Amino acid sequence: MDGAPPLIAVPGAPIPEGAEPTWIEGYGGAPLRAALFTPKGRVRGSIVLSGGRTEVIEKYFEVIQDFLDRGFVVLAHDWRGQGLSHRLLADPLKGHAEGAKPFLEDFRILLEAYQARLPKPWVAVAHSMGGCLTLLAMVRGEDRFAAAILSAPMLGVQTGGRSLGSTKLLVGLSKLLGRGKRYLLNDPGKPFDDAFDSNVLTHDPRRYARACALIKAEPKLALGAPTWGWLDFALAATAELARPERLARVTAPVIILSAEEDKLVDNAAQMAAARNLPQGKIVNVPGAYHEILMESDDMRNIFMKAFDALTGRVAPMPAEPPSATAPAAAPTPAPAPAIAAAAARAAPAPAAKKPAAKKAAAKKPAAKKASAKPAAAKKPAVKKAAAKKAAAKPVAARKAPAKRKSAAKPAAAKKAPAAKKAAARKAPAKRKPAARKAPAKRTPKA
Predict the structure, then answer these.
(1) Same domain? 208 vs 114
(2) Which of 314, 348, 379 lies at the terminal end of a domain, its last residue?
(3) SS3 of 404, please?
(4) 20 to 30 Å CA-CA from 59: which of 17, 112, 421, 440?
(5) What per-residue confidence (pLDDT) applies to 394?
(6) DSSP label at 31?
(7) In this predicted model, what pLDDT tens digit does every residue of 378-421 receive, in sequence order?
(8) Whole-model pTM?
(9) Residues 6+ apart with CB under 8 A from 103
(10) In total, how many domains does the chain have?
(11) For residue 216, is it within any domain?
């Protein structure tokens, strides 16, 4: 575990920018390979990516880049027994397991080692065996995930035409005879085979060739067929996930993508799990083989659409930060002060009417100079009348000044001259026509 572990790049699968591969000390001191990928710009949350049996971090570089482009930090890892993580047997090509506990402890240690660098919310993305182990961890109390989306999860295994009961009997007998570390049916598989036509994983020749190129570039990434011990683990784990009361403990949303033409795992078990999960949902991928994320674009895009819909709910895109020119747009309330200023400028207009009234009064004596003195005497009379009204009706007296102060409402200003009209009517009848003409001249000014 000296130094950082390598990441292998091949044509068509470059290492995503900013990758940080690291060794993690797993359960029992087993060295495990992990890698953290950080996006540029604002972060929406974190993806914990767990591959299936035989799979390695490098196989998911394309998927990792898709998640980075969507603003997620991504943590990927090699399960024990595969990739560059610790191999359990002297023959590194044997796909072996010794129960679920070591896997789950490794997963817990991985999350604790990285949790300070994984912004919330967390979303689990897992395939096949990785989907089985991720869901099993959630069933057993792992509650840090806001949601999970599983690609063809191993919730049941296809047993090659044998009944589940007879398969369990064979596994038990093999373990009893000490054959748990042997290949199933003594078949080592073909880990270095690159024949596309006979594969049952994907319809996409380009992605299939890319996975084969990784094995050629680094043979240590190869893994052969499973052992009886691995099948024993798989049957026990899937049996636990078949219990409705266990799945009822998982309250986070779980989306299951089911490959219609899967030849490796049991689709019926996936549908049952989706029904029993409180927020479970199944999405069928028509025509797909087992590896949905390595399938041709039309099928792979079904997964990505489901992913986008899920993360849109639990990890929505963050709001865009204010642009550099935003401060210039900030004074949008400026029209309000402008209106207030305009009103302030308009306020003196009614006050100017009083001099106009005096001028009108000054013109009146032009007809009869003797009437100037009675006109001067009328102003106190209006005040006295107002005073009497104020004494009788205090409320009305308060309203009248308020109407005179209002500069923005010409109608209110007209009421004050109306009071003068009332006083003017008390004067001799000859002066009434002059009083009527004065308001007519003031109306356009308002």
Answers:
(1) yes
(2) 314
(3) helix
(4) 112
(5) 37
(6) E
(7) 443 434 443 343 333 433 334 434 444 433 443 333 443 344 44
(8) 0.73
(9) 79, 80, 97, 133
(10) 2
(11) yes
